[in-house]
């Protein structure tokens, strides 16, 4: 009879050794028990060892956690503090402001703002396994430990980029095992809280480069005068070497030590196969800079204003273009130096399409105290001279009692106690309105302003977003047509930018909005009137050696030679120039055409853009010679020359009434809108939005074809030059 075998039993859980029921106790050669070979006792020792190991691990982990907790939270908010930076529309740095303690620390995005070759050198030299480890590189730590044992001192710390960031966030003077342990714990915390990209960005913003420079952007700008987006191999190696000992390798103090450290980086990169020997040799041949460059200060007035407007912002984006801003600042500085030590210049350039300020030069030199450089003359209230005249003419064109080809008299005239005369104290006689504006004749401008109304002009300019500053307790008067008010250069440029926009003004902006642009267009004048003004100004004789018929412009000189102006535009851009003394003192002989107009034309030339043509004439614009104009438009008659009939014979429009709403005329009534008048002297001309549509018949009425829906200006002018105007809404 066979007996079933007993299954083998392991001597210890997990053991593969087989045992029999009789093998629990081994026998020696004398037949005595061998306690050391007791399987159960061996298993017990293994269990105890595992338990002790687990407890030790738990204790170490618990101790590290307790230690980490004792360190407090990571000072991330403090580490993320950077200098306030102001950038242009393309993200280029215009100006940075030092932090409260004087340090320059600029934010940086390694993925888009740093040269990839620099990043390659940095990681190859400092942390080869940056993207593989979790804050601590065991291989680097092991190497450092062996060096410590073999040399008896710390040779290399085995620090990763993350550990170095931890040290930068919590600086420690001593170099000890305790400090290293703290870095390791903090590095693990950083890896848990931040992505690799965020860690790298923060390191590149905090790394020291000597003196008050922190971060690669501040160092690259201060040492090389450029952003770190495009670095040479020599520059990249230098920036890798400097943070290891920033104070003993400062370029402005120890350039030889900095160059030696750079060359060591290059040599090691050749050994590691990161770069070629020839490239390294060329990089070593480049001498390092021996002094720092100043931080950029472009558009300082705009930057100051933006920081005041938003005191909590760390990054402010302006609409300015850094290239144009730099070119116009240089232009203003050079021209002011040629004009005299007390002269300053303000320039504002605007994009007509969107109202963005592309350049804002507030003074000739921000740091020149004699020129009061920190005073923003683009926002200072000054007398505009003759620069408001185009808007007088524009309202006259809009009202329909004058045309660019109408004739007007330039002769001595008196308005009460006011008797305007021309700048050269002469009179031109009878001239076309076009020429009167191009030559900036004073008497015709005041004659037209009297018909338009000074209060109406002031109201229209205010409606277009400009506040005129009148003398205390004075109402708008005829003198405002020759500069008897105050205005800012930036507001004047805003007004002029409405002319190439055919009468609609878009409020200017310098701070780029992050959300939807909620600006609404403002009404300056009718499209036809705006086009006519632009057409006239385009023919103004330019300064010497300038090309004609490319820029529409106007000059102005304030009373006493205190302010010289020139504002011009093409189809793309409007630029305004002010020249004078910031303290308002007169500068004998300084006039707009000589002092400001050349600066204006140079500003357009330095903009780097091809001239853009002005818009074409709007549909319905009356373009004709004087001989082909309607009879009342051939010659302008001043108010004193008009026939003054009795009240019952004064010209007035009886229908439609001013301000009325009229339903669109149906086809049943032949699409005709009746215009009825009373008084006046025949023949009479009817004009719709400045365009002649025929004459009033003997019954003192006329049927006209109404334009499309919207506001319509109807003007009737009689043979004496008297006119009446109503504005109605077709709906």
TrEMBL record:
<keyword id="KW-0472">Membrane</keyword>
<feature type="compositionally biased region" description="Pro residues">
    <location>
        <begin position="1"/>
        <end position="10"/>
    </location>
</feature>
<dbReference type="Pfam" id="PF00905">
    <property type="entry name" value="Transpeptidase"/>
</dbReference>
<feature type="domain" description="Penicillin-binding C-terminal">
    <location>
        <begin position="646"/>
        <end position="728"/>
    </location>
</feature>
<feature type="compositionally biased region" description="Polar residues">
    <location>
        <begin position="12"/>
        <end position="24"/>
    </location>
</feature>
<feature type="transmembrane region" description="Helical">
    <location>
        <begin position="50"/>
        <end position="69"/>
    </location>
</feature>
<dbReference type="InterPro" id="IPR023346">
    <property type="entry name" value="Lysozyme-like_dom_sf"/>
</dbReference>
<keyword id="KW-0121">Carboxypeptidase</keyword>
<dbReference type="InterPro" id="IPR009647">
    <property type="entry name" value="PBP_C"/>
</dbReference>
<keyword id="KW-0511">Multifunctional enzyme</keyword>
<keyword id="KW-0645">Protease</keyword>
<dbReference type="GO" id="GO:0009252">
    <property type="term" value="P:peptidoglycan biosynthetic process"/>
</dbReference>
<keyword id="KW-1133">Transmembrane helix</keyword>
<comment type="similarity">
    <text>In the C-terminal section; belongs to the transpeptidase family.</text>
</comment>
<feature type="compositionally biased region" description="Basic and acidic residues">
    <location>
        <begin position="25"/>
        <end position="40"/>
    </location>
</feature>
<dbReference type="InterPro" id="IPR001460">
    <property type="entry name" value="PCN-bd_Tpept"/>
</dbReference>
<comment type="pathway">
    <text>Cell wall biogenesis; peptidoglycan biosynthesis.</text>
</comment>
<keyword id="KW-0812">Transmembrane</keyword>
<dbReference type="GO" id="GO:0030288">
    <property type="term" value="C:outer membrane-bounded periplasmic space"/>
</dbReference>
<dbReference type="Pfam" id="PF06832">
    <property type="entry name" value="BiPBP_C"/>
</dbReference>
<dbReference type="InterPro" id="IPR001264">
    <property type="entry name" value="Glyco_trans_51"/>
</dbReference>
<keyword id="KW-0808">Transferase</keyword>
<comment type="similarity">
    <text>In the N-terminal section; belongs to the glycosyltransferase 51 family.</text>
</comment>
<dbReference type="InterPro" id="IPR050396">
    <property type="entry name" value="Glycosyltr_51/Transpeptidase"/>
</dbReference>
<dbReference type="GO" id="GO:0004180">
    <property type="term" value="F:carboxypeptidase activity"/>
</dbReference>
<feature type="region of interest" description="Disordered">
    <location>
        <begin position="1"/>
        <end position="40"/>
    </location>
</feature>
<protein>
    <recommendedName>
        <fullName>peptidoglycan glycosyltransferase</fullName>
        <ecNumber>2.4.99.28</ecNumber>
    </recommendedName>
</protein>
<keyword id="KW-0378">Hydrolase</keyword>
<dbReference type="InterPro" id="IPR011815">
    <property type="entry name" value="PBP_1c"/>
</dbReference>
<dbReference type="InterPro" id="IPR036950">
    <property type="entry name" value="PBP_transglycosylase"/>
</dbReference>
<dbReference type="GO" id="GO:0008955">
    <property type="term" value="F:peptidoglycan glycosyltransferase activity"/>
</dbReference>
<dbReference type="InterPro" id="IPR012338">
    <property type="entry name" value="Beta-lactam/transpept-like"/>
</dbReference>
<dbReference type="Pfam" id="PF00912">
    <property type="entry name" value="Transgly"/>
</dbReference>
<dbReference type="GO" id="GO:0008658">
    <property type="term" value="F:penicillin binding"/>
</dbReference>
<keyword id="KW-0328">Glycosyltransferase</keyword>
<feature type="domain" description="Glycosyl transferase family 51">
    <location>
        <begin position="101"/>
        <end position="269"/>
    </location>
</feature>
<dbReference type="GO" id="GO:0006508">
    <property type="term" value="P:proteolysis"/>
</dbReference>
<feature type="domain" description="Penicillin-binding protein transpeptidase">
    <location>
        <begin position="346"/>
        <end position="468"/>
    </location>
</feature>
């Amino acid at each position: 009879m066979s007996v079933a075998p007993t299954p083998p039993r392991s001597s210890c859980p997990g053991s593969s050794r087989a045992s029999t029921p009789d093998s629990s106790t081994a026998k020696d050669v004398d037949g005595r028990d061998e306690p050391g070979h007791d399987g159960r006792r061996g298993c017990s020792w293994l269990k105890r060892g595992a338990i002790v190991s687990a407890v030790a691990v738990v204790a170490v982990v618990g101790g590290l956690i307790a230690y980490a907790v004792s360190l407090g939270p990571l000072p991330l908010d403090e580490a993320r503090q950077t200098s306030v930076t102001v950038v242009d529309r393309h993200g280029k740095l215009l100006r940075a402001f030092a932090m409260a303690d004087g340090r320059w620390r600029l934010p940086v995005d390694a993925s888009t703002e740093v040269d990839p070759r620099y990043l390659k050198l940095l990681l190859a030299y400092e942390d080869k396994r940056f993207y593989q480890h979790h804050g601590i590189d065991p291989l680097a730590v092991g190497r450092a430990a062996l060096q410590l044992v073999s040399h008896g001192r710390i040779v290399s710390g085995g620090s990763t980029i993350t550990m170095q960031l931890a040290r930068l966030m919590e600086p420690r003077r001593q170099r000890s095992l305790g400090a290293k342990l703290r870095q390791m714990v903090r590095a693990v915390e950083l890896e848990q809280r931040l992505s690799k990209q965020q860690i790298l960005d923060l390191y590149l913003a905090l790394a020291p480069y000597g003196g008050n420079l922190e971060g690669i952007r501040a160092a690259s700008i201060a040492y090389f005068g450029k952003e770190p987006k495009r670095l040479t191999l020599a520059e990249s190696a230098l920036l890798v070497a400097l943070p290891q000992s920033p104070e003993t390798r400062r370029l402005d103090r120890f350039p030889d030590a900095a160059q030696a450290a750079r060359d060591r980086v290059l040599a090691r990169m050749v050994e590691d196969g990161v770069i070629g020997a020839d490239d390294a040799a060329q990089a070593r041949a480049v001498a390092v800079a021996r002094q720092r460059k100043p931080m950029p200060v472009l558009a300082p007035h705009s930057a100051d204003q933006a920081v005041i407007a938003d005191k909590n912002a760390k990054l402010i984006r302006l609409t300015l273009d850094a290239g144009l801003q730099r070119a116009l600042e240089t232009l203003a500085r050079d021209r002011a130096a040629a004009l005299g030590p007390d002269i300053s210049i303000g320039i504002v350039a605007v994009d007509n399409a969107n109202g963005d300020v592309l350049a804002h030069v507030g003074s000739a030199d921000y740091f020149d105290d004699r020129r009061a450089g920190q005073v923003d003359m683009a926002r200072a209230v000054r007398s505009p001279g003759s620069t408001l005249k185009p808007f007088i003419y524009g309202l006259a064109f809009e009202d329909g009692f004058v045309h660019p080809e109408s004739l007007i008299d330039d002769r001595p005239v008196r308005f009460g106690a006011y008797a305007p005369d021309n700048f050269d104290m002469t009179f031109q006689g009878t001239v076309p309105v076009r020429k009167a504006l191009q030559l900036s004749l004073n008497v015709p401008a005041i004659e037209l302003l009297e018909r338009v109304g000074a209060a109406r002009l002031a109201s229209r300019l205010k409606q277009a977003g400009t506040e005129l500053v009148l003398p205390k307790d004075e109402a708008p008067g005829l003198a405002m047509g020759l500069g008897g008010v105050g205005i800012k250069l930036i507001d004047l440029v805003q007004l002029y930018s409405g002319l190439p926009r055919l009468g609609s003004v878009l409020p200017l902006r310098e701070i780029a909005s992050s959300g939807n642009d909620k600006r609404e267009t403002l009404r300056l004048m009718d499209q036809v009137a705006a086009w006519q003004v632009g057409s006239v100004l385009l023919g103004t004789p330019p300064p010497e050696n300038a090309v004609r018929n490319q820029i529409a412009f106007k000059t102005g000189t304030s009373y006493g030679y205190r302010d010289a102006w020139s504002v011009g535009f093409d189809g793309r851009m409007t630029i305004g120039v002010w020249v004078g003394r910031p303290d308002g003192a007169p500068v004998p002989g300084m006039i707009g055409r000589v002092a400001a107009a050349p600066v204006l034309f140079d500003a357009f030339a330095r903009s780097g853009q091809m001239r853009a043509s002005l818009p074409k004439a709007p549909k319905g614009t009356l373009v004709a010679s004087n001989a082909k104009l309607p009879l009342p438009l051939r010659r302008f008659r001043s108010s004193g020359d008009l026939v003054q009939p009795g009240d019952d014979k004064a010209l007035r429009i009886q229908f439609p009434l001013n301000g009325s709403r009229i339903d669109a005329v149906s086809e049943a009534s032949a699409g005709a809108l009746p215009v009825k008048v009373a008084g006046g002297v025949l023949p009479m001309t009817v004009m719709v939005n400045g365009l002649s549509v025929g004459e009033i018949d003997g019954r003192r009425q006329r049927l006209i074809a109404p334009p499309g829906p919207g506001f319509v200006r109807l003007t009737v002018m009689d043979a004496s030059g008297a006119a009446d105007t109503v504005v109605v809404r077709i709906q």
